Amino acid sequence: MAIEFSERIRRIPVYPTAGAYALGDDVAMLASNESPDPPLDAVVAAAQRAVAGANRYPDPSNSELKRALSNRYGVPSARIAIGNGSCDVLLAAGEALLEPGAELVYAWPSFSVYPHLAAASGARAITVALDDEQCHDLDAMATEITAATRLVIVCNPNNPTSTALAFADIAAFVERVPRHIALIVDEAYCEFNLLDDPDTTLDLLAKHSNLVLLRTFSKVYGLCGMRVGFALCGSEDFPRAVDQVRQPFFCNVAAQAAAVEALRHQDAVAERVERAVVARVEIESGLNDLGIEPAASQANFCWFDLPGDVDESEVVAGLAERGVIVRAGGALGRPGALRVTYGTPTQNVRFLDALGDVL
User: Fold this and answer.
1) Do 277 and 253 belong together in one domain?
2) Considering its fold, how many domains does the chain have in total?
3) Structural contact between residues 165 and 80, judged by C-beta atoms closer than 8 angstroms
4) Rounded to an integer, what distance in angstroms lies between the CA atom of residue 303 and that of residue 337?
5) pLDDT at 10
6) pLDDT beneath 50: ranges in the chain
7) Rounded distance, CA 17 to CA 337, Å?
8) Is 156:170 a contact under the CB 8 Å cutoff?
9) Residue at a domain's end among 236, 262, 288
10) The model's pTM
């Protein structure tokens, strides 16, 4: 007789993870929006020093990391939530805010974790189609907010489409969301967004207690493997609530130390953004040469529709045979598209050559 699991296990979708982790070094891993740059030596050294004390539990309050983030962003420590990656904060938000009868509003396609929040809680997910430019349609999202809405999520820049909205659009939307509804602006890729200064949205926190800016060390800081995310919040209520529904010690000692050290190297962040923008221009040009028009990227990856007569799975398989791993759009809400992370210059050339060969 099989084990009986809860009903929500049947509701929760399986997260579409990238393959090829077991492959050799001669593979261009362009599927998971990771940084091609390894952690800085100083960051690695900080993590190594912290591991020497791994016989003790990590600081459950993440006090040093919160203090460093507070100094960097000007947000009081009590209004900062830390997570085992930004996904941890998202899932905790669903646990703290949602329940049967409640509603969650977000755009689609967007980040693959969002569907988990409603499925796990029994709430109703209201998904709003992107516009013709593959950007959030904020007017359409605003019309879906009802008395049952508990949480609204805006991913900016949006994953997987790479597009972003200007600060003025975000600010106007924040004004339209009722103050009793939590609004998460997921800014995992904000450092790569050239439409505005990434810190511009911080000004909104002082006026909107229901606003949460969700960020991560996984992308521009190159710490995917450490799993550190954080939320900058308009009030102390959100950090307190998400901490209540999670296990203690959710951010390990090495991750906390690495993140604190990474914040000290903003010049390296700027250099990584510059390299990503160069890659953005080069790959867009290369795709144009193949007759492909990608979405207007403001992230560290690109998103594009394949020619109409091309099979997505065959292209993905063909690229894998040539040592290039990308993410298929079918798993991300838009069959017939590809999401490709910007890699090293050599990897980017390899991708373009392989795609041209496959097509």
Assistant:
1) no
2) 2
3) no
4) 7
5) 79
6) none
7) 16
8) yes
9) 262
10) 0.95
